[in-house]
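Structure ticket #2291
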Amino acid sequence: MPMETVAPLRTFDIPEGEEIMEPGHYACPGCGITPMVRLLLRVFGRATMIVTPACCYAVVDGPFPYSSAGVPLLHTAFEAAAAYATGVRAGLDMLGESDVQVVVIAGDGGTFDIGLQALSAAAERNENILYICYDNEAYMNTGIQRSSATPLLAWTTTTPARAPKQEPKKDLGGIMLAHRIPYFATASMAYPDDLYRKLVRARDTRGFRMIHYFSPCPVGWRVDSRYSIRLARLAVQSRVFPLYEAEYGERVRITVDPDPVPVEAYLKLQGRFKHLRPEDIRRIQQEVDRNWARLVHICGQGVSSVSVS
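Resolution: structure written out below.
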């Protein structure tokens, strides 16, 4: 077999910090959750409380009484993470511990679907919490079932290849921009410098903040774990998952604007898309192009961005 071409390594300008997350977690190889949690805690420090509903991270952190987080972590009902975090925030404030950060870490099932009502309510009240949704585009913890974050024409165990998902992915960013929260951003494991900067911005902002974090799942996406970062990067390069940020639903800015590649380069690595026909790929490309054009329009005068390849 011919040798695989290896792209040159990139370096990232991320300041050193205390490593709070501990070894012994239960993440699958290639999972994008743990790199994000590790960077989150480096930025936020030990004065942090994590709230997590039923999701992959609730398992990844470790079985009771063990935890790899290194900070207090509260497990909640599937649908109520934002409501629990609101209560934790209120309790800390009553104790005079307003310097402690409250962070929700939830999957797309507990955010896009089951937890959307609590998320919307907390955002509308502008609760002083950070909500991070790690998006692996299905209910991975319970058997790879379809969620509203599952992309168009994707395979899951509840949308088999003979009947793949016919609906496009829910526009979570559009929903949160409509809530006019102080800070919303998308982020990716393939661009840790961009993620780090957005975590710092979230730490230094008061009120409701949200980061929508793209997190490939090798198991659910039917791909070798060595391709996780490549997939995360291709998702940005193909404009499947644009990286941007917004303040109060306005001043939207694209933060990574690479030279675009065809969406087929992203799709062909994944077993969940192996059933696609050429006309299916064209349909997905058209959807991606429409979404990108809509985002550029929201940005206002062209693309306000930082170009990173």
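Closing remark: Strands lie at 48-52, 73-75, 101-107, 130-135, 183-188, 209-214, 243-247, 250-256.
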